[in-house]
Amino acid sequence: MNKLDSVATDVATVKLLIDGIFVESRSTEWRDVVNPATQAVLARVPFATTDEVNAAVAAAAQAFKSWRKTPIGVRARIFLKYQQLIREHMGELAALLSAEQGKTLPDAEGDVFRGLEVVEHAAAIGNLQLGELANNVAGGVDTFTLLQPIGVCAGITPFNFPAMIPLWMFPMAIATGNTFVLKPSEQDPMVTMRLVELALEAGIPKGVLNVVHGGENVVNAICDHVDIKAVSFVGSTRVGTHVYHRASQTGKRVQCMMGAKNHAVVLPDANKEQTLNALAGAAFGAAGQRCMAASTAVLVGDAQNWIPELVAKAKTLKVGAGHAAGTDVGPLISCAARERVEAYIASGVEQGATLELDGRKPVVPGFEEGNFVGPTIFSGVRPGMRIYDEEIFGPVLVILAVDSLDEAIDLVNANPNGNGTAVFTQSGAAARRFQEDIDVGQVGINVPIPVPVPLFSFTGSRASKLGDLGPYGKQVVMFYTQTKTVTQRWFDDDTLHVGVNTTISLK
Question: How many domains does the chain divide into?
Fold first, then answer.
């Protein structure tokens, strides 16, 4: 973190959004936003003051009074306009994302597009926020439910998907009638802020969406603030666990999507070429910086003979800057991230795993200062090794060997994480047994990264998730609304009930 004085600088500053106005923070704590391929400083982001966080929440609380009563069709049309604006600016958004996060341009477009799908879903809020009605449940009595907004909600998002994950959060919260305070990752907030600008252009009123930046102090302020009713978080297990417990203690609804160790189980009858391509793409895409990356391969029986071909496939991937043509694997987000991944690779060697492919210190001409680690593959990995037990969050694939599908299922279920898993096979019977017996929230069958489309909800489980409702889909409508049940009876003058009824019956 850098301390900035009042000396002018040519580097742009990232603004806060409070009550519909982009404002310069008065903070004395700032951080550089750095291009991970070049180390060039792109902007400086403030760590918001307590007063600025309070102002953002106060603006959201004031705006909620009118926004909650805004007709549902008005809300829906804003998000129809918003998805159009995102499409029109897709190239700009992808370039900005690639520059500050490091992803390849095609992957950056995918990041934006998967968020866009949630915006499209939010535009259908008229169908998603329907209650239920039971007519004449007793003599002249009807019962119905309302799904009403809960108030000011907040979101804390990670660096690895600076477009998609903010778009998981604030569109659905706002579409359901809430107001929102967003805290993007301080490592790459620029594309998030551009998306926020487009949201305002689409018609989101002042105060309905607010943005503050910062680190631990701002996170804690969000967890503690009495006027915030719900918090959504995506990030590391360490921070997510802290957020869940701290925010829950103040009575908030909390959903935390956290770390993972996703296993791809490969049966020997799987289509070899399709499976090898899927493993390489899911393990090394986005430089492995995905909570749903297939970071662990479990090769069953004769599939263990495929390791040389998998290594050969990984060697064909080009490491380079995200904006450079033909790049498959971009840089890690920071120098610290690169050093951490390199330390994991060293630990794998020290603990006896076989280093089939070493991606440390790749040569990337023209980008010698970049945070690059190339595709790395270990075989002979066992539980108890750090490279298996801990999430590496880099382009490192660890391979375990088992003799049967049952042994593979037991191995996956013994791991504490439950974000995602996949099985590769041409056997319907094996796939069905896997999907029924595996204790993981999201299952792919010949699909390496089984993140569901927004018609469904993100359903990570066990140590990968805290809170019982996931982001987007039907579950998040329930997360962002309060179910109110109304039981009513109307009387005609000639059917008035006579006498006092002291029972609980509605007859």
Answer: 2
